[in-house]
């Protein structure tokens, strides 16, 4: 179905920060699947882990344990500082789990989210997405969702009511134009929220230079959602909560916790070490020093550009894949592992197109 405004390009292979189309043309990938392929295409660690799991066991129902699922839960719990994981297959599903968890934990169904936020396309996730154009054709959605302005504490206070069980925030609004939250705003949310959930579907797994973006906000949420970068491109979602309210029968997913995908995700978590995170922060600083009008955190960045759509097309013609962040900015989400030379090459193309 024509649900995507696709480029007229068919990609057939990828290695590291490069992808190749069906005609053999190579592109430097500064999008990485929109912040998904964090370690670069076909990274050997998740590739080997997924391969060896493919040779052992593809699927069992969630009526049984598998080792990769348990290992991944342990890795994520360690990073969070103690948590339980529910595994699913996408970001939107992770949000659905978060919404159900918050209702059960608080007995309240009200949610406060942000104007311009994006949490996914399923009915629940769309209900908490603060973008009227994406919602209009599908209303009525879930009731008692209110939207506050990002980084406006008075607006957040006004949006919270006695019905509010959950405050749901992206640490950096991604689809909403790459808008980082300020620590004071996150602190205010922490004080106001019964259940504070950070949607780290886009910001998580090292993308902003720390494993979780919330580490830079000085605020610990009750729960986070993860997806995109977690298995380097294999489909996965995770709802991670300090304390589960779910009991047997409350929630489920047939494919959630798939052993092949979880094996890849364990390898990803093991690769995202302090050196990779420091390199993300360093490359982010390099980009900000080189281009004017850069905003964001780590390698989740936007660069101001009039007529962003045209810039994207021109970059693609010259062999560089970038995205848009609204109408007037280019989104840069290259692999976290991109080399200095590759970064230099891509930024040179972008500079040429922007001037
Ligand atoms: N939450 C955030 C912050 C996202 O950026 C996205 C996707 O872009 C989602 C949720 C939805 O994830 P998915 O497309 O995997 O359902």
- Summing up helix and strand content along with how strands pair, one would put the structural category as alpha/beta
Strand content: 15-25%
Level-2 CATH architecture of the largest domain:
3-Layer(aba) Sandwich
Largest sheet: 7 strands, mixed
Which cofactor or ligand species appear? pyridoxal-5'-phosphate
The global form is globular
Distance between the termini: 37 Å
Describe the structure.
This protein has 355 residues and is an alpha/beta fold. It has two domains: 11-43 and 273-354, Aspartate Aminotransferase, domain 1 (Alpha-Beta Complex), CATH 3.90.1150; 45-271, Aspartate Aminotransferase, domain 2 (3-Layer(aba) Sandwich). The chain contains twelve helices and 17 strands. It has helices at residues 32-35, 44-54, 67-80, 91-106, 123-127, 132-135, 153-159, 183-192, 259-271, 274-290, 308-317, 340-354; strands spanning 11-15, 18-21, 26-29, 84-88, 110-114, 145-148, 164-169, 172-173, 179-180, 195-199, 223-226, 237-241, 294-297, 300-304, 320-321, 323-324, 329-332. The strands form four sheets. It has a seven-stranded mixed β-sheet, with helices on both faces. The protein is globular and about 55 Å long. The two termini are 37 Å apart. The relative contact order is 0.17. Bound molecules: pyridoxal-5'-phosphate. Pyridoxal-5'-phosphate binds at residues 90-92, 95, 118-120, 170, 174-175, 199, 201-202, 227.
């Amino acid at each position: 179905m024509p649900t995507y405004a696709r480029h007229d390009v068919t990609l057939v292979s990828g290695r590291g920060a490069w992808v190749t189309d069906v005609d053999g043309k190579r592109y430097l990938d500064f999008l990485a699947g929109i912040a998904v392929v964090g370690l670069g295409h076909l990274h050997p660690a998740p590739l080997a882990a997924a391969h060896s799991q493919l040779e052992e066991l593809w699927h069992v129902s969630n009526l049984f344990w598998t080792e990769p699922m348990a290992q991944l839960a342990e890795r994520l719990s360690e990073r969070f500082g103690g948590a339980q994981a529910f595994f699913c297959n996408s970001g939107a599903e992770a949000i659905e789990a978060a919404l159900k968890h918050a209702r059960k934990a608080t007995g309240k169904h009200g949610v406060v989210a942000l104007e311009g936020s994006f949490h996914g396309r399923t009915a629940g996730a769309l209900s908490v997405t603060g973008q009227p154009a994406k919602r209009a054709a599908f209303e009525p959605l879930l009731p008692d969702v209110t939207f506050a302005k990002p980084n406006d504490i008075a607006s957040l206070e006004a949006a919270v009511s006695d019905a509010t069980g959950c405050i749901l925030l992206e640490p950096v609004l991604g689809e909403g134009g790459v808008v980082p939250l300020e620590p004071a705003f996150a602190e205010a949310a922490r004080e106001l929220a019964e259940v504070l959930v950070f949607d780290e579907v886009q910001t998580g797994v090292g993308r902003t230079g720390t494993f979780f973006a919330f580490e830079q906000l000085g605020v610990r949420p009750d729960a986070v959602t993860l997806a995109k970068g977690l298995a380097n491109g294999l489909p996965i979602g995770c709802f991670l909560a300090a304390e589960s309210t779910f009991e047997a029968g409350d929630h489920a997913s047939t494919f959630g916790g798939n052993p092949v995908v979880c094996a890849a995700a364990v390898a990803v978590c093991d690769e995202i070490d302090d050196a990779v995170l420091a390199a993300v922060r360093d490359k982010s600083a390099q980009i900000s020093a080189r281009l004017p009008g850069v905003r964001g955190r780590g390698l989740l960045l936007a660069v101001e550009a009039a007529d962003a759509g045209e810039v994207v097309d021109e970059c693609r013609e010259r062999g560089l894949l970038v995205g848009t962040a609204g109408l007037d900015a280019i989104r840069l989400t290259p692999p976290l592992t991109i080399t200095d030379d590759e970064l230099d090459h891509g930024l040179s193309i972008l500079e040429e197109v922007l001037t």
